[in-house]
């Protein structure tokens, strides 16, 4: 009987306990089901688990087989906030290998991260989330000594157990899509694909604290991976403006300054796609021009100047380092004859070196140059030097003016952060020369001497396919550049018919041309004007003028002679052919000496 009574009491006690638990659970569920009652409690629990100050406008639980914790206007101080955060809970999440939150739905949120060393991952509670869906999430990306940039994720889904991840977003003026697999929302070990398209790759690169030149609109797609502090975009291909582009890029954020490395190739480069870098106009053949191209094209069309009025952004030099190799197999360069381009670029602590910089012409000429830019201070100093060798003059105007080999060397030192001030400060030398293997079209020779009779005759009788050429005994030109003024010292072209000399200067600051061209005929030529030719105007709009005073005197003498005897009126326009051969050896030796001196000084 006693045992029976104890059993009854045990059952009664158990019932009371169960009733109490059920009542407590019901009360707890009732308590958490109302935002008015539950918000404070939920805020305190989040703060306890994240060890951060928490703001929460409203929080409650919608009860069901899988309860949903709903948070509104929730924020972790200095880290993240969300307008809507719904967490669907797994009743068996406490079991080993399970996650408490089966699914997280995030909308109208913002999250802060720091790239590189000292960076931080996503909130720790996401380690207990199995899957996530995001809409309209702003990612604030911080870099030391750089403004915070923002990437907007318009839609994103991820399975945090398998690592599968997809996202669409916009930032830096570009749209991008990501798909792949990562270890967590920090994207550690991410491997997948990315497609990005935008107006200017420089803006997209700046989103991550990287430096890149301005570009026309672009579309690139390829593999994307993340290992520690290094992101790799490889291999990839796509288009930039009217050019194709492929290769691989990597961004290393482990140091104080990001390092961008790239190995790039273009099978067909439209050279004016590079013009936006220096503010030069571009001819858009496919797609639409971006806002920067439109502004540059409009400004250039309205300007009388040839040198663009472009203020180069050298702050990019100080933001990141870079190592870039680029080559183009074929080049579309308008009137400029180019077959290929290649260069190696190194940017370290705001000092850029492009060496070698190689241009090749279709008929075999090669320009091998080097450019140095020191942007460590506001006084930007640049140096450009190079040698053009084996260039065939047939490359110019499709051979309608001259043919044969030409050699050139140049060295220029410039100071200034914009092109016009840099050229206005230019100092250095430019020299070119050609020897007996060259030929100049007769039309050009006669025109230089203003032998109007023969020019007129050639215009009437000569066609481009059967043009007549005059052998060049020698030709040499040296321009000494000082304080932005290029002085012709000397410019000489010696042919069988004429000795052509040019003197004067070209201002790189004002772009005004002041050059005089004289030709001493070696044979008796009818129609020559004793006054010679003056080349004036500007680099953008040059003009050719006849020496008016001498021409008027000639005209007066002709009028006087015509009153005496009609046929003698032609005599003032006839040169006696007293021109002497230029000392070719001395001229070419001088040109070569100048080039050798430039090489030694370099």
Structure description:
- This protein is of the alpha+beta class and 602 residues long.
- Among the domains are: 31-183, no CATH class; 395-601, no CATH class.
- The chain has helices at residues 2-32, 35-50, 201-206, 291-302, 315-319, 419-424, 442-448, 452-461, 548-564, 584-601, and strands at residues 54-62, 68-76, 80-89, 101-114, 131-143, 146-159, 164-171, 174-181, 191-198, 218-227, 230-240, 243-252, 259-270, 321-332, 340-348, 351-360, 366-374, 381-392, 402-403, 405-415, 427-434, 439-441, 469-482, 485-495, 498-507, 513-521, 525-526, 533-537, 542-546, 574-575.
- The strands form 2 sheets. It has a 28-stranded mixed sheet that branches. It has a two-stranded antiparallel sheet with strand order 27-30.
- Strand 16 and strand 17 form a beta hairpin.
- Helix 7 (442-448) packs antiparallel against helix 8.
- The longest helix is centred in the N-terminal third of the chain and has 31 residues, at 2-32.
- It is elongated and about 110 Å long.
- Mean pLDDT is 76; it is low at 443-462, 524-531 and 548-579.
């Amino acid at each position: 009987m006693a045992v029976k009574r104890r059993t009854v009491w045990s059952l009664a006690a158990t019932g009371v306990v169960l009733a109490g638990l059920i009542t407590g659970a019901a009360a707890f569920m009732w308590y958490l089901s109302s935002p008015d009652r539950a918000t404070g409690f939920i805020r305190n629990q989040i703060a306890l688990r994240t060890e951060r100050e928490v703001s929460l406008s409203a929080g409650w639980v919608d009860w069901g087989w899988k309860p949903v914790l709903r948070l509104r206007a929730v924020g972790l101080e200095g880290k993240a906030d969300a307008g809507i955060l719904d967490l669907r809970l797994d009743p068996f999440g406490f079991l080993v290998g399970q996650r408490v939150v089966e699914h997280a739905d995030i909308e109208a949120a913002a999250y802060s991260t720091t790239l590189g060393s000292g960076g931080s991952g996503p909130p720790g509670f996401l380690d207990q989330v199995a899957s996530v869906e995001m809409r309209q999430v702003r990612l604030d990306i911080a870099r030391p000594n750089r403004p915070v940039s923002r990437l907007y994720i318009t839609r994103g889904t991820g399975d945090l157990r398998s690592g599968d991840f997809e996202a669409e977003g916009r930032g830096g003026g570009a749209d991008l899509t990501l798909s792949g697999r990562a270890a967590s929302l920090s994207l550690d070990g991410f491997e997948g694909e990315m497609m990005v398209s935008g107006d200017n790759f420089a803006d997209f690169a700046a989103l991550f604290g990287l430096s890149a030149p301005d570009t026309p609109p672009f579309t690139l797609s390829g593999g994307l991976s993340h290992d520690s502090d290094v992101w790799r975009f490889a291999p990839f291909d796509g288009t930039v403006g009217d050019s194709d582009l492929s290769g691989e890029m990597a961004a290393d954020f482990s140091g104080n300054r990001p390092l961008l490395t790239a190995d790039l190739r273009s099978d067909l480069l439209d050279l004016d796609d590079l013009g936006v870098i220096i503010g030069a106009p571009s001819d858009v053949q496919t797609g639409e021009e971006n806002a920067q191209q439109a502004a540059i094209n409009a400004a250039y069309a309205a300007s009388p100047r040839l040198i663009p009025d472009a203020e180069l952004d050298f702050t990019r030099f100080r933001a990141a380092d870079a190592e870039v190799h680029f080559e183009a197999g074929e080049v579309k360069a308008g009137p400029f004859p180019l077959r290929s381009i290649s260069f190696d670029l190194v940017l370290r602590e705001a000092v850029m070196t492009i060496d070698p910089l190689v241009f090749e012409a279709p008929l075999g000429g090669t320009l091998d140059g080097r450019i140095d830019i020191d942007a460590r201070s506001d006084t930007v100093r640049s140096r450009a030097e190079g040698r053009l060798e084996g260039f065939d003059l047939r490359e110019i105007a499709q051979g309608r003016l001259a043919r044969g080999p030409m050699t050139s060397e140049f060295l220029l030192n410039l100071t200034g952060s914009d092109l016009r001030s840099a050229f206005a400060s230019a100092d250095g030398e430019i020299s070119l020369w050609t020897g007996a293997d060259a030929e100049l079209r007769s039309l050009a020779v006669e025109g230089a001497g203003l032998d109007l009779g023969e020019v007129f005759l050639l215009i009437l009788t000569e066609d481009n396919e059967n043009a007549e050429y005059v052998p060049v005994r020698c030709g040499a030109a040296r321009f000494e550049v000082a304080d932005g003024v290029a002085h012709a010292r000397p410019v000489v072209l010696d042919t069988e018919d004429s000795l052509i000399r040019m003197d004067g200067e070209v201002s790189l600051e004002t772009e005004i041309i002041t050059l005089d061209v004289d030709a001493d005929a070696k044979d008796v030529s009818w129609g020559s004007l004793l006054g010679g030719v003056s080349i004036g105007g500007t680099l953008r709009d040059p003009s050719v003028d006849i020496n008016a005073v001498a021409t008027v005197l000639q005209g007066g003498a002709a009028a006087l002679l015509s009153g005496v005897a009609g046929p003698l009126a032609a005599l003032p326009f006839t040169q006696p052919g007293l021109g002497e051969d230029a000392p070719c050896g001395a001229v070419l030796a001088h040109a070569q000496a100048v080039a050798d001196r430039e090489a030694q000084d370099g």
